[in-house]
Amino acid sequence: MTVKPTYCFIINCASNSFKAASFLKSKERQIAQIFGNPEFVYIQKDDSIVDIVREKANEFTHIIACGGDGTVNRVANGIMGSEAILGVLPLGSGNDFAQSIGLGNQFEENLSILKKGKTRPTDVIEIEKGFFVNTFGIGVDGLTNYYASKSRFKKGALKYFSGGLIALFKSTPFKADLSIDGSQIDLEAKCWMIAVANGKSEGGRYKISPESLNYDGKVEVIVVKAVQRIKLIIAFLKLSFGFEFNDTLVHRFSLQENCTIKTDDHLKCHADGEQVSPGTVINFKLLKAGLSVITG
Question: Which residues contact 280 (CB under 8 A, 6 or more apart)?
């Protein structure tokens, strides 16, 4: 027996510099005509997206995250453990996960993709305080995200670029121990950042892991070596223009089950663009096909 799909749209009012809410309100009638009788939930400042979604995931077959990567992260965390399907309407500043599942900038086209409802099992990474679906960053990466979140710029590209420049001048290399799938990795020297990538890019344009696919049952761990600061700045500028990391600057490892990263100090970290504080020992577990996602 086929279950009739039901939809709940979760709108993060803070997304896209607080423009997402007014935009979605202007589209409610159009969305209702396409999806029958959906529910619209507008998330305010002190609301817990995870708790709200956890409740709605037991009432609706499809939960649609309306916002950026941070909103997708919170909605995915709420869905985990339920039978609900994740959909995305990209309205944020980065929208990297949305790009990875075949969504673009055209609202009408994205609605059509959601209505068609083609799904794909998507990998999820579990950490101590939840899950992430795109990238996790430590060091310069985490600090860039921190300063981007504080930026006065409203456009995503400028937010991440300005945040990155500040982080590049304020960061210092750190010592880390790395274990992947039960094997200890000898990093030999300090590093600027470590990223665990389920997707190709973050910050809207920074292709830190261009070969990553979030449905292939593996994740890439990228370690940026402690090169001279000027070389790191040049690498960042190239990333900003769509270039990839030069292989001489990074170590790349494949993760297929689990990973542990131990750092010598508490460092800024982000999970899908959301600041997190996991401590100096961070454990990652790959949940293959952990989430059903509507894709283009």
Answer: 262, 263, 264, 265, 266
pLDDT in tens, 11-44: 998 877 677 888 989 999 999 999 998 999 999 8
In the chain, where the domains are located: 7-117, 132-290
Domain spanning 7-117 has what CATH number? 3.40.50.10330
Helices and strands, number each (H, E), in the chain? 9, 16
From the candidate CATH numbers 3.40.50.970, 3.10.20.30, 2.60.200.40, 3.90.660.10, the one assigned to the domain spanning 132-290 = 2.60.200.40
Q: Are 13 and 22 in contact (CB under 8 A)?
A: no
* Integer Cα distance of 62 and 296 in angstroms: 16
pTM beyond 0.90, yes or no: yes
**How far is it, in rounded angstroms, from Cα 22 to Cα 93?**
16
Strand ranges (E), 60-206: 62-67, 85-90, 119-127, 130-132, 135-139, 176-180, 183-185, 191-197
> pLDDT tens digit string along 218-238?
999 999 999 999 999 999 999
DSSP 5-64: P-EEEEEETTHHHHTHHHHHHHHHHHHHHHHSS-EEEEE-TT--HHHHHHHHTTT-SEEE
CA atoms within 13 A on the CB side of 40: 20
